[in-house]
Amino acid sequence: xxxxxxxxxxxxxxxxxxxxxxxxxxxxxxxxxxxxxxxxxxxxxxxxxxxxxxxxxxxxxxxxxxxxxxxxxxxxxxxxxxxxxxxxxxxxxxxx
Length: 96
Prior knowledge:
Elements: H1 2-13, H2 25-36, H3 49-61, H4 67-76, E1 78-82, E2 89-94
């Protein structure tokens, strides 16, 4: 169990995207899958579906995710969490 947790953390830390990198649909899906496996990675406060769409649209308009990634995120209600200082995606979390 501990080895699985260590492996997961090391995998997550290998996802260091630069501010100019754009999440493709494949990267978005993979990051959503990995982040959903980490306990307490995402907020415990439920994010409504309308808020999910706002966050995804903002990320798309900022050039952080591709159009296909935005469609996938809306279809499955996974939204990006973006650091306000670096403008990098720090997690992909499940919303409402």
